Amino acid sequence: MRIAVAGGTGVVGRYVVEELAAAGHEPVVLARSRGVDLVSGAGLDAAMQDVVAVVDVSNRATTSGKKACAFFRTAGRNLLGSGARAGVRHHVALSIVGIDRVDFGYYRGKLVQEDVVTNGPTPWTVLRATQFHELAEQTLDRVPKPFAVVPRMRTQPIAAREVAQHLAQLVVAPAQGRAADLAGPQVEQFVDMARRVLRARHERRLLVPVTLPGATGAAMKGDGLLPTGPGPRGRQTFEEWLAHHGDQ
Q: d(Cα 26, Cα 92) in Å, to the nearest integer?
């Protein structure tokens, strides 16, 4: 089966590509480094030839709601339009647990993406997952030393590889609409995760926990980003991921 992976060079996307290839499918990476621009649409129709299913794990790293909404609206419409022209039968999009309960700029963009997919022309599945184990390291790497500014947040993190495995299974199954939320095996404090990453990297930085203002910060510190019902759970804990991270 020829399956397009939008954002196939990213944190989750590269694992999706590996999983699909290992299962005998033909993954097609949609990324600017491969000559495909989801926003302008350049190279998209050519890459989508003979594709029968799509996994969208594309991303725009921003906290700006305006930028996030613009990206996910445009990229989503372009991807769905090209898919319809190619005869795609199933469109799977990765989203985030709690985005309808936490008012945060990036999450507003993901809600726009969900709306575009659910009102699009192709049978769809939307999988909401919790934050990845990898997010703590990514957050630290975005902040210049010697500081480490980290939001106070409760999360039930999951390894990106396990998210990719789930997406690879969903895309070859019939479309199911909103799939059950996917989360990791246990709840963590994000500040503590960042502290453990710094310790594992033998890195001395001033860790500065911050609470986002108003209802957004309260929801993040509370249960806003945690799953509210039953669903699939990852097996690898953050501590296990951290111990083997250098081997991955």
A: 16
